[in-house]
Amino acid sequence: MQGGRDEETLELEVVGVRFRSDDGAFAVIDAMAADEQGTPLGHEVVVGPVGHLDPGDRVLASGQRQAHPKHGERFRVHTLRTVAPTDDEAVSRVLQRVPGVGPKAADALLERFGDELLERLDRDPRDVLRRVKGLSGDKLTEAVEAWRSEAGPRAVRLLLERHGLDAATIGRVIRALGDEPDVGLLRSDPYRLTTRSGIGFPTADAIALALGEDPGSDDRRRAATLHALELAEGDGHCHLPHDELVRRTVRLLAGRDARGPAGAALGPGVAAALEGLIADHAVVDREGRVATLELDQDEELLAELVARMATDPPALRVDVPDAPPTAEDGGPVPSDEQWTAVAQACGRRLSILTGGPGTGKTQTMRALVRVLRDAGTDVLLCAPTGKAARRLAEATGAKATTIHRLLGFVPGEGFAHDEDDPIPSAGMLVVDEASMLPLDLAVALLRAVGSDTHVLLVGDVDQLAPVGPGRVLQDLLESELVPAVRLSRIFRQAERSLIVRSAHAMNRGEPPVVRPGPDDVRDFFFIDRLDAGAAADEVVSLATRRLPAHYGVDAVGGVQVLAPQRRGACGVETLNGRMRELLNPGGAQAKGSPLRQGDRVMQTRNDHEAEIMNGELGMLVRVDGDDVQLRMDDGRVVRLPAVRLDTWELAYACTVHKAQGSSVPVAVVPVVGEHRHMLTRNLLYTAVTRAEKACVMVGDKAAVMAALRRVDGATRYTALPARIRAALDAAA
Q1: Nearest to 11 by CA among 51, 49, 40
Q2: How many CB atoms lie within 10 A of CB 281?
Q3: Which of 69, 307, 592, 714 has most Cβ atoms within 10 angstroms of its Cβ?
């Protein structure tokens, strides 16, 4: 593609959509254009982040004309602003949503009935719609029923259309308002939308301002403050310091002007709004730490549970010898530090086992299971994901399950087990991959542990922090109040692996090991590619062709690309599109979904009914009418209605965060400069340690070293260690 020209702004009316990416982030559309003075310019082919636009939408688009060697001149959009339609245009768009009513018919009805059109339609839709050419019989009945059934959504749509909201936003609002959207409530309190699923402050704020909300209103400041706290929770914080919350809210309200006079002027008003929220008990302020009620209660309860379990006398009567046993079956003998962890788990109601790859966490759990079985004690093992639980069961020979299944999660009701109905039949509960535990799940788990059960938390605290608020395992270690064993010795067999040695080197902030010794297993490789586009080409070639052939694994499921972020040439979205067209170009498409039979897929939300958690991977193996069949990586075969695929996405490539708790035969990890804002030591360490047979890192050595200088997780705002100490003091 040739270089761009000077930037210009066009007024565009969309007339057609040629292509829209599966995620809606990119599209190629046809539009009629005019310049900023309104002079018609004719037809334009428009490309860029315009996937949310539909025919009839009008926008102001800033961008550049570019000459494409194959497709000719195109207008590439950088930024968009919606053009508010006239009343007639807004009504026309609403009319065109009725089956059988097109643009010409809508204009004809407007011309015939004028300002009385909507009133006449509501009073007698059949009398009005029968005048549309081609509408009669069953088609007319369908159109009349559609008009009557859409009264609530139509009122909301018309209100928002008249104020220039785009079609994608309007659709999200109507879905959030439920079966009977209330336009009166929306008009009187648009910020209430922020309590509805899928609608954040920016959308509610755009609607409120369009409807005439005062930019300096207290309602707006309060809504922005709550949203800033919600965003912080999404980033893993359990609270924000008072002044930090004010600063973040000011940034949210003022945007780029936050550090200038406009931002300074907002500060006092935001601080006053926060004090009002505290006085109304909408949020909690504990010595300058501001949190939502739910997170504050969860952190307090977890501190009390931990304090009690850490000081309880042991409930088990298991005699653990001072020295580890010799291996009668020729297997490995537990090391002294591993045996210390076994004895500690039996002697304390709550304990921790941590360590990096190759240090023997699994071997320690295997030894613990053997000791408990020899003593006639029941043991349960669990992990956050199905695949991790299956791997744990295979490694230890004991029953293992997911945490949600162990707690008896009931959709719409919550967990079946709690302090009043604890987990049955367990003298010892072992929780693997405990570094993934967010605050709320840790609370639910420890609440459900009976007074006669010991708990051993096993995990690697150097991996990424949990996807969710808190950093429970790290906080428990930092409190120094929960007995813990940190395994440090790398065993000989593991030490030969370049994956293991590279992971430990990176965890120390050192570059990965790429030059093997004579006895080493060469299972880690680094391919130097400075340019993101060249790196993407290499990743696609490796993942779709070369690595499956070399290691004898399937390209779909046997090789997993783990990228730091979603966007960019080496991002998840681009790589997924490229890999799919090579690996599954012609699969049958599922009804109402962009996914195809044969696709590598991932669940993006917890589906408790199907017992498939956020981040679990599988393959769409069959499309059968309105149903689909998926084969999950943990071996389960699940049948679902195709409509429930809306929470699934392509996963030939996925983010490293989504891959936590899983393992893959072969991992390919792009690390390039375009991902610099996401790159941390913990992220690369987590990515590399997902690989079982081989890991190939592709990218820029400078980007790798920049990542190794940044440690993630330490900056999360939590107060759990201090609250555990306070709980212990209160109980003393």
Answers
A1: 40
A2: 8
A3: 307
What are the angstrom distances between the C-alpha of 226 and each of 276, 469, 551? Answer: 12, 16, 51
Asked if residue 70 has pLDDT above 80, the reply is no
pLDDT tens, position by position, 591-608 = 888 899 999 999 988 787
Q: What are phi and psi of 411, to 5 degrees?
A: -55, 130
DSSP 8-state class, residue 638: E
586-592: which pairs have CB atoms within 8 A and are 24 or more residues apart?
Answer: 587/620, 587/623, 588/623, 589/623, 590/620, 590/623, 590/628, 590/642, 590/645, 591/623, 591/625, 591/626, 591/642, 591/643, 592/642, 592/643, 592/645
Q: How many helices (H) and strands (E) does the chain have?
A: 27, 26
* d(C-alpha 251, C-alpha 228), whole Å: 9
Which of 126-155 are b and which e, b meaning 16 or more Cβ less than 10 Å from the residue's Cβ?
eebbeebeebeeeebeebbebbeebebbbb
Decide if 426 contacts 453 (C-beta within 8 A). yes
Residues contacting residue 330 through CB under 8 Å, at least 6 positions apart: none
Question: CA-to-CA distance for 231 and 137, rounded, in angstroms?
Answer: 52
Report which of 330, 363, 322 is spatially closest to residue 346, judged by C-alpha positions. Answer: 322
370 is written with which tokens?
Answer: 């053997």
| Cα atoms in the Cβ-side hemisphere of radius 13 Å centred on 44 | 25
The token duo for 430 is: 């072992």
What would the pLDDT profile of 410-468 be if each residue is shown by its tens digit?
Answer: 877 889 999 999 998 779 999 999 999 999 999 999 999 999 999 999 999 999 888 88
CA–CA distances in Å: residue 244 to residues 11, 92, 270, 514:
40, 47, 12, 43
Question: Can you give the pLDDT at residue 3?
Answer: 42
Instruction: Select from 425, 424, 422, 370 the least CA-distant residue to 395.
Output: 370
Q: Is 703 helix (H, G, I), strand (E, B) or coil?
A: helix
Angle at alpha carbon of residue 684, lines to 682 and 686, rounded to 5°: 65
* pTM (whole model) above 0.70: yes
Q: Residue type at 668? A: V
Other CB atoms closer than 10 Å to residue 43's CB: what's the count?
9
Determine the distance from the C-alpha atom of residue 27 to the mean position of all C-alpha atoms in its chain, rounded to a whole number.
23
Q: Take residue 727 and report the two structure tokens written for it.
A: 């709980």
Rounded Cα gap, residues 617 and 649, in angstroms: 10
393 vs 387: CA distance, rounded Å: 10
Could you give the residue ranges of the DSSP H alpha helices within 46-115? 87-95, 103-113
Question: What is the Cα–Cα distance from 31 to 29, expressed in whole angstroms?
Answer: 6
CA angle, residues 458, 460, 463, in degrees to nearest 5: 145
Would you say 538 and 528 are in contact if contact means Cβ atoms under 8 Å apart?
Answer: no
List CB contacts of 297: < 8 A, sequence separation 6 or more. none
**522 CB burial (10 A radius; 0-12, 13-18, 19+):** middle
CB 21 within 8 Å of CB 27: yes
pLDDT tens-digit map of 674-683: 888 889 999 9
Rounding to the nearest 10 degrees, give the CA dihedral for residues 515, 519, 524, 528.
20
**Which H/E stretch holds residue 669?**
strand 664-671
Helix (H, G, I), strand (E, B) or coil at 13: strand
Calpha distance 446→389 (Å, rounded) = 18
Q: Of 445, 439, 480, 434, which Cα lies nearest the Cα of 728?
A: 480
Provide the residue type at 317 as one letter: R
